[in-house]
Amino acid sequence: MTISPSLLSQAINEAVKPGNSIPPSELIEFLDNLPDPFKFLNDHNQNGHGLIYKKLYQQFPFLQFLIKGQHPDSADFQTWVGLIRWCIENVRDWLSDNDSKRVKLIAIFSIADFNLSAGRFWPLVPKSYVQNVSLVTSLKNTVSTCTFDITSTQGDSELIYNIKLYEREVDLANILRSISHVEFLQSPFDNPHLCWTHSVLCLFQCDVLALVEAAEKINSIFPLLSITAILPREQRLILALKSNNQLLKFCSVYHFLKDNFCIWLERRQPKVISVEEETLLSQIFIQIMADKKILIPWLNALMPKVYWYGIVQKSLGSALSTASNGAITAYVERIQLHFGNVNVGMPWQQDTLVPGREQISECLREFGKNANKEKRQLLWQLAYQKWDN
Question: 107: Cβ–Cβ under 8 A, 6 or more apart, which residues?
Fold first, then answer.
């Protein structure tokens, strides 16, 4: 169980009112005695995350019961509010010159991490608390200078090397094929450490354009995959929409699609997408279709596996209805229809069969509803020529 989102919202609403701030003094003392707290947390062998929680529980025992779904009594609730008040006030007032070892910053992130499962801590913090120039500058530097070493115990060093070539060429189709294998290797982008996670989440809330600027300085796909894996669904799409970097945009959309496909594959639940997400996806695809040189790598990556990505077909069809004739031609040329079911090829679901034609039909229905007569005629003519031959 986790903390109720409504209870967390209530606690933050109380924390922004004047009152006592209660610092996590035992955690701060522990971190201050480390030679390099940030490096300590970056070392997965040190179990830094677990030790941080231990220090929080020692000073605030009720937190252990809070995450189990138990409602705190009045005294514990006020203590919790005081702890959150200390956290958000220090977010507002944090200065890098006064926190050279980043002890306070890590303590802030630790409190935020504890409350994260309750429903996205950072979006609940008022904007006035996160508009801190010193904090934004520090977080941008943390994000933009991050490097991940992806290693394999299975002899796949050639695969990692090839991905670096695909990055330079922005070969999205081969990147997509490759990263599905990398995820089975030893990779930190599926389990990032606390400071990296909250640098991304906090920076998005502070200034999303600052996060875009920091991420666009990264020339490796692995940190970009980590950034987009950390962000909640809708925030991934906002990041993609605001970025001109095709690798960052692709990673954002990839994680959105992957999460929805895995939910459908494992639980056989209907694929759900909100109106806001659908609109964002349409706007992203409109951006992509504006430049045929950019569009073709995207189509090469997505069209062969279109049956994985049924959730985006309505947005894709809507964007296609406003696209140029060249973009429509490129789309039709890459349609691959299957005369039956196709195997999705997932290692743990080899017997799973998914219809491949339904998704194309959904895209074209949306296109037909929104496109003008000339665009509809062009697409049908191109389709007739393709299959008549």
Answer: 23, 24, 27, 28, 31, 87, 90
The pTM of this model reads 0.86
HEC per residue, 250-277 = HHHHHHHHHHHHHHHHHHCCCCCCCHHH
HSE-up (13 A, CA, CB side) for residue 359: 24
pLDDT by residue for the chain (389 residues), tens only, comes to 467 788 889 999 999 999 999 999 999 999 999 998 888 877 767 777 888 889 999 999 998 888 777 888 999 999 999 999 999 999 999 999 999 999 999 999 999 987 766 447 899 999 999 999 999 999 999 999 877 666 554 556 777 788 888 888 889 988 888 877 665 444 444 455 788 889 999 999 999 999 999 999 988 888 898 899 889 889 999 999 999 999 999 999 988 887 765 544 444 455 578 899 999 999 999 999 999 889 999 999 888 776 667 788 899 999 999 999 999 999 999 987 765 554 544 444 444 444 567 788 889 999 999 999 999 999 999 989 988 76
CA distance linking residue 122 with residue 84, whole number of Å: 12
Contact call for residues 203 and 139 (beta carbons, < 8 A): yes
At 107, list the tokens: 């303590």
Confirm if 374 and 351 have CB atoms less than 8 A apart: no
Q: Phi and psi for 24 in degrees, rounded to 5?
A: -80, 75
CB 106 within 8 Å of CB 37: yes
* Measured torsion, CA atoms of residues 90, 91, 95, 100, in degrees rounded to the nearest 10: 80
C-alpha–C-alpha distance, residues 196 and 190, integer Å: 12
Which phi and psi (to 5°) does residue 342 adopt?
-125, 145
Distance CA 172, CA 288 (A): 13
The angle formed by the CA atoms of residues 29, 32 and 34, to the nearest 5 degrees, is 120
Cβ-based neighbours of 145, under 8 Å, separated by 6 or more: none
Q: Which amino acid is at 103?
A: V
C-alpha 169/C-alpha 164 separation (Å) is 9
Exposure of 381 by Cβ count < 10 A (0-12 exposed, 13-18 middle, 19+ buried)? exposed
